[in-house]
Every structure is written in structure tokens, then in C-alpha cells.
Amino acid sequence: MSATPSLAAAPALPLLDLSRFDGGGADRAVFLSELRAAIRRFGAFYVTGHGVDPAFLDTVFGLSRRFFDLPERDKLAIEMVHSPHFRGYTRAGWERTRGRADWREQVDIGSERPVLPALADAPHWTRLQGPNQWPDALPELRPAAQRLQDELTGVTLRLLAAVAVAIGLPEDSFAAIVAEEPTQLIKLIRYPGREVLPEDGDAAAGQGVGPHKDSGLLTLVLQHERSGLQAETAEGWVDVPPIPGTFVVNAGELLELATDGYFRAAVHQVVTPAAGTDRLSVAFFLGARLDARVPVLPLPPELAAEARGPERDPDNPLFHTVGENTLKSRLRSHPDVAQRHYADLLAAAV
Ligand SMILES: O=C(O)CCC(=O)C(=O)O
Ligand SMILES: [Fe+2]
């Protein structure tokens, strides 16, 4: 994988209309087989028919723009380093993917839940749960983020039901691990444009966010106007430009584990936009409950025969314990938060 890919002239990702899952008869069956084929081949696809009001999404992007336009001191007032739960604002260049700096600024907003008691024998990942940091300078953000989280959770649960049926399983196959308290994370993201320089220090040329898999079950990416997202396919990297009214859906690591590698999580990246421009996106990650263990689902024999097992990447072990898999990604991406709030863990790891 390279951060400066040569693009293959491969077809764009498929576009699927989720409302076909609610229809009956032959078209539903066709939809399900297209869904299975899309995730199997690409790990990613566009979805339409999701039912989220486009006017509301415009409001969300408007709020995102207003947040990033705030004076730096207002943004730093909620900097992530203040939060053991990895919530809040990250400056461009402070997050890392595969050890290299990403050129994007962002706000992480997760499920708003109480801190869990710090019991001596509690697993480390229990520290992921807790409140968000909200910007005083933009009070409208909180209710909008809450509504966005509710709506996107609904869409993603519906997609998960469709994924289960598409691989011959009952619709509620993921219910046991997502019920009541799934791991939800919204990221409002801004990729500032800049000259793409040859390697400069530890920043990879053109790396908005470097190649990675998302750690949860499914991710929805909402793109605003400008493109930059790319997906890795068997034919090479392909552009995933914004298509109005759609979200991009990425399969995540927990789906890879649950299907024993029948589905592999999508490897994707974002390239830095041209100097003088920028790109806004919103990513919504749905994972299972932090205390859940992801089961290997009983696939029908013809699909099980095609399951390759999860990828074994020494740089990216996958964990069936959801809290552990989530904490792995968070510690790796945010070394400043790791140093401040998880120093005990880092010390134990050396
Ligand atoms: O901004 C995007 O288009 C994708 C972001 C992404 O892949 C991530 O934050 O995990
Ligand atoms: Fe991602």
C-alpha cells in the first residue's frame, strides 16, 4: 500500500438502494445478492434510500464549517488530550495512521454515557466510556450531533440486518452484540488543502488520512462536495467521489471477524485536497457493545467455504473483544491521549 497511489481504471464502487430491502419478492433478493457481492469484492459501497433528510445533513455540514471556523482557542478548549475517552478536537498533524501524521482536523463525538467505575480489575477499555466535550462557542452542535447519531445508528442497524440476510442468516444476527449500548462515534472532519510536498519529516506526502481499516462493524461516510476518499481494491486504488444523497459504507474489522474473513474490512484513505481548498466529511462508526465478544457467525457451508479467515497483519491484530479492538485503534491514532491517560498501559507494553 502506498499513500501516493496510481489509480486503477477500475469501476467505481456499486451504489445500492437500501429501501429495496423493505420491498418484497424478487427485487429484494436481487438487492441482497448485490449487497453481498459489493461487500465481498470491495468491502465498501454507496448507499441511497437511507431516509435521512438532506436538509438536516446540510445543517450538520453548516455546523461543522462553523466549528472549524472558530478561533483556535475555542477549538483547543475541547482538545482531545483532555479526555480519557478520546473525545473532542484534534489538530491537523496530531493524529497518526500507520505511524505517520494525518493532515486533517476533527472533532470526535461518541455515545454520551457515564464514566464507568475505576475498579482495580476493570479492563482497560472501560476508560473509553464517558462524556463528550462540547464547544461553548457552538451550543447548537450538541442537539444536532445527538439527532445525527440517532438517525445514523438507525440506518446502520438496518444495513446490518440486510448484511445478515444477505449471507443467509437471520435478520437479528448482530442484535445480541449491538443491543442497547452499541459503540457509536461521529467524527466531523476537515481536510485542509496544501501543496503536496515530497516526504516532509514524518508527514507522508498527500496523506489526509493514511490507509487503514475502521475498527467497528460498519462505517457511514458523508462527503461534502469535494472528493479525496479512495478505496483499495484488487485492481488497485479507486476514487470514491461524493455522490449527492448517498453515504459511503465501509465494512469494518468486527464484520471481518464475525464472518471469519468472508467479508474483509475495506482499506481506504483520503488524499489531501489542492492548496487553497479544503474538504469536509462526517464519518459515523458503529461498533458493538464494548463488553461484547464478536462471535464467528455460522455461515451457510457454501459461503463458509469461501471464508479466508481474518487477515493476519502483525501491525494490526484484530481482537474479538470489542473494547480491546476499539482501544487498540484509539491508542494508535492518538499518541498524545495515550501518553496522558494510558501511560500505565504503554509502560506495560514495553
Ligand atoms: O473523510 C473520509 O472520507 C473518510 C474518513 C475515514 O476513513 C476515517 O475517519 O476513518
Ligand atoms: Fe476510515
Give an overview in words.
This protein is of the alpha+beta class. It has a single domain, classed as Jelly Rolls. The chain is 30% helix and 21% strand. It has helices at 25-42, 54-69, 72-76, 141-166, 175-178, 253-258, 301-304, 322-333, 335-341, 343-349; strands at residues 15-17, 44-48, 88-90, 96-97, 100-101, 105-110, 183-192, 207-212, 218-224, 229-233, 236-239, 247-251, 268-271, 278-287. Strand 4 (96-97) and strand 5 (100-101) form a beta hairpin. The model is unreliable at 1-5 (pLDDT under 50). The structure holds 2-oxoglutaric acid and fe (ii) ion.
Give the key terms.
350 residues; alpha+beta; Jelly Rolls; eight-stranded mixed β-sheet; 14 strands; binds 2-oxoglutaric acid; binds fe (ii) ion; 2-oxoglutarate oxygenase/decarboxylase (ethylene-forming) activity; EC 1.13.12.19
Furnish the topology, listing elements before pairings.
Blueprint (H helix, E strand, L loop, with lengths): L14 E3 L7 H18 L1 E5 L5 H16 L2 H5 L11 E3 L5 E2 L2 E2 L3 E6 L30 H26 L8 H4 L4 E10 L14 E6 L5 E7 L4 E5 L2 E4 L7 E5 L1 H6 L9 E4 L6 E10 L13 H4 L17 H12 L1 H7 L1 H7 L1
Parallel strand pairs: 1-2
Antiparallel strand pairs: 2-12, 3-6, 4-5, 6-7, 7-14, 8-13, 9-12, 9-14, 10-11, 10-13
The structure holds 2-oxoglutaric acid and fe (ii) ion.
Rounded mean pLDDT score: 93
Which geometry do the CA atoms define? Answer: globular
Low-confidence stretches: 1-5
How many β strands by DSSP? 14
How much helix, percentage-wise, in residues?
25-40%
CATH architecture: Sandwich
Radius of gyration, whole Å? 19 Å
Largest sheet: 8 strands, mixed
In the sheet with the most strands, the strands line up as: 1-2-12-9-14-7-6-3
Looking at this structure, what is the CATH superfamily? B-lactam Antibiotic, Isopenicillin N Synthase, Chain
Bound molecules: 2-oxoglutaric acid, fe (ii) ion
In total, the number of domains comes to 1
Q: Number of helix segments? A: 10
- Ends distance: 28 Å
**What fold name goes in the CATH topology slot?**
Jelly Rolls
GO molecular function: 2-oxoglutarate oxygenase/decarboxylase (ethylene-forming) activity; metal ion binding
Pathway: Alkene biosynthesis; ethylene biosynthesis via 2-oxoglutarate
Protein name: 2-oxoglutarate-dependent ethylene/succinate-forming enzyme
EC number: 1.13.12.19, 1.14.20.7
